[in-house]
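Team,

Forwarding the record for the chain on the shared tracking sheet. I've put the sequence and predicted structure together so nobody has to dig through attachments.
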Amino acid sequence: MKPSIEFAQLAHIGFIFDVQLIRRGRVISQERTHNLMPTQGLNYLQNILMKGTTPAAAWYIGLYEGNYVPVLADTAASFATDATECTAYDEATREVFTPGAVAAGSCNNSASPAEFTLSATKTIYGGFISSVAAKGALTGILLSAVRFASPKGGEDGDVLRVIAANPFSNAA
């Protein structure tokens, strides 16, 4: 018998991405967008919660520049290629997602936002959270993927600041 409520619906699991495009110290674009949590990420969470699987040691935020809409079937093995991961930023790896304390069913990285200093003119369509730090990696777990409401047209030297929050709730 199939349950009538899926795990993601029960807990409203996912991330909200707050994104700012900063040019010469001024915010020129900002938005808040809710993600898609691919089946790979949902399965990973259920394996940790229900089966005792060892959690990932760290999580990393990345960007993508392809005109791509994330789908439930996305995995870490395909996403960097399918979405055309952006690697044209000064930082050596994807940015570490460093969440603060968990409170009221939520945590975020607002005390330590992920910041990407673009090293070329790029249009950024979205972001993601992965368990692997290396730019372009095709391994690990894809926990979250988001297409921004509007593409971010960045120039060499612009900074894209990303704050991700996972406000779990049981609200219907």
